[in-house]
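Let us practice reading a record.
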Amino acid sequence: MPAAGVDAVTDDGAAPPARQRQRRDGPLGRQNLLAAIATGYLPLILATAIIALPLLWMVIGSLKAPSEVVTQNLVLLPQHPSLNAYREAGTKIDIGRLFLNSTIVTVIGASIKVLLAITTAYALAFVRFPFKRVIFVFMLVALMVPPQVALVPNYILIADLGGVDTYWGIILPGLGTAFGTFLLRQHFLSLPTEILQAAEIDGAGHFTKLLRVVVPISTPTIATVALVTIVTEWNDYIWPLVITTDPARMTLPVGLTQLKNIEGDASSYPILMAGAVMVIVPVMVIFAALQRFIVAGLTQGAVK
């Protein structure tokens, strides 16, 4: 008789069917491993490749010679990598000035947008005032309307106010952020009401509750909104292109239009790729530094 709790063994030394099924269906079993690869790793690898390969190809192309970019034979890696394209881009456009313009517009615009999103979301979540639900519905409608619809009215208004070729003319029309306000409002509503009630009993007003209670415990979500706003401000192209004609006020994405690609001129392709890399690198550095807040901010309050 086999001991209790110990599976019996057949005469030929093989494990019983129950143990075979346990090994086959365990965490490292073949079926589970294939399922994990098919439903997890494979889609992740494909999504990463779709996103990363064009960026990698752009970086590699900026290091190639013009003859290696425009050729009938595919050249994966440059034979003699060089930074000549970056130097050529620096001589054709004022990279330093464009970078400074983008930094000014991004820092001021993103700071004001995040501040407005925090205060507006707090008001929609905790302050009682007439037509609050109507205002929230209009904000949701604003999420569905593309910003290009207001391009002409905004230009007429800013031009009449004398905002053409000015920093405030670039910043002002985009100060409203429906996405950030919506995300913060939904997060604020998920906060424990006991904390706010305790602060109110202690005599805290709305301003004190916002600064000392709501903002400290909502740092991941606020950081998420700030990161999305920074990336949006830095990469904005259409409105700065419309409102600026002076190269001294152009942002970096708009300034790259001065690197015009002349048809048949193969030497311009590496220069254009180099300019695109200079636009993307600062955003990628900021994203890499703050990307952990995205997951924490978007999932905070989802599980209680």
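A brief commentary: Residues 123 and 195 are 17 Å apart (CA to CA).
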